[in-house]
Specification:
There is one protein chain. The chain folds into three domains: about 5-75, Winged helix-like DNA-binding domain superfamily/Winged helix DNA-binding domain (Arc Repressor Mutant, subunit A), CATH 1.10.10.10; about 80-160 and about 260-290, Periplasmic binding protein-like II (D-Maltodextrin-Binding Protein, domain 2, 3-Layer(aba) Sandwich), CATH 3.40.190; about 160-255, Periplasmic binding protein-like II (D-Maltodextrin-Binding Protein, domain 2, 3-Layer(aba) Sandwich). The strands form two sheets. Strands 3, 4, 5, 6, 7, 8, 9, 10 and 11 form a nine-stranded mixed β-sheet that branches. Strands 1-2 form a two-stranded antiparallel ribbon. Helices cover about 45% and strands about 20% of the residues. The chain has helices spanning about 5-15, 20-25, 30-45, 60-80, 100-115, 130-135, 195-205, 215-225, 235-245, 270-290; strands at about 50, 55, 90-95, 120-125, 140-145, 155-170, 185-190, 215, 230-235, 250, 255-265.
Length: about 290
């Protein structure tokens, strides 16, 4: 069976319709329909009930669902193992939301290189929806994100509570409550993901077009420390600078709190995955204590 057929089937299940699956796969709706028809012909069963409301699984579709998950996962695992670099015993692909790489996941990678040097690591950046699709398709072994979805065959585990705080490097002026004021000209807007975008727009509706927009938090932090300014950053990242007095919190500014989760396959028996999760929980615990 063409593995793309199983992937397309899973995307239709996730989207609830053929149109949404086509958008997720970046193909036409007719391509999705053709793949599903081909899959149904090969299996000799109708997998979806089509209606104006969308596409719902038949009894046969429900039975095939767990097999489709297994097919995609086994294929990706085989592909990764065949391409395993020389000198390594296992490989893991980890995807994380943008802000969670700063500090948390970078520290985890450093820990893994010390404690599990035989495991090859591949890292990916993305938004929660894209990471979930990668996990369902078997492209990723571990996903770390703010807004996971409940999917069959995947474990969702709360990892850490992340707080984004408004900080400034300007210590020469007397701190004053921000409240509903618009951030100043030195403000650096960091794209911490859809959740932050929503909350930021609700709290600062007049700041529709920031003067400086950056997607990488580590780059924004370096710019802030080198050139001064203000912006939102995870508390776990800027806490050392707050303690040292090189940054200060802006009184009255809203704090955005987001629980972060780790998602991984429920049926994996990989020793490398087990060790990776253990080290990730340890790093998360250390981050929470600091």
């Amino acid at each position: 069976m063409d593995i793309d057929l199983a992937r397309t089937f899973l995307e239709v299940v996730a989207a609830g319709n053929f149109v949404g699956a086509a958008e997720r796969l970046h193909v036409t709706q007719s391509t999705v329909s053709m793949r599903i028809r081909s899959l149904e012909q090969q299996l000799g069963r109708t997998l979806f009930e089509r209606s104006k409301a969308g596409a719902s699984l038949t009894a046969a579709g429900n039975q095939f669902h767990r097999h489709a998950l297994a097919l995609v996962r086994v294929w990706e695992q085989a592909r990764h193992e065949v391409a395993l670099p020389s000198g390594y015993q296992a490989a893991l692909t980890v995807a994380g939301s943008f802000s969670l790489w700063d500090g948390l996941l970078l520290r985890w990678i450093a820990r893994m290189r010390r404690t599990a040097p035989e495991v090859a690591l591949r890292s990916e950046l993305g938004f929660s929806g894209d990471i979930m699709r990668g996990l369902v398709d078997g492209l990723y072994d571990i996903g770390v994100m703010y807004t996971p979805e409940s999917r069959p065959g995947l474990v969702v585990e709360r990892l850490i509570e992340d707080e984004l705080v408004f900080v400034s490097t300007d210590g020469s002026q007397k701190p004053r409550p921000l409240k509903k004021q618009i951030p100043g000209a030195d403000y650096i807007y960091v794209d911490w993901g859809p959740e932050f975008q929503r909350d930021h727009a609700l709290n600062f509706p007049d700041l529709s077009t920031p003067g400086l927009f950056l997607r990488l938090g580590s780059l924004a932090l370096k710019l802030l420390l080198d050139g001064g300014g203000s912006g939102y950053f995870p508390l776990r990242i800027v806490r050392p600078h707050l303690d040292a007095g090189t940054m200060r919190l802006l009184p009255g500014a809203p704090v955005f709190s987001y629980p972060a989760y780790v998602v991984y396959p429920a049926d994996s028996a990989s020793d490398a995955l087990g060790q990776a999760l253990t080290e990730l929980r340890r790093v998360a615990g250390e981050e929470a204590q600091h």
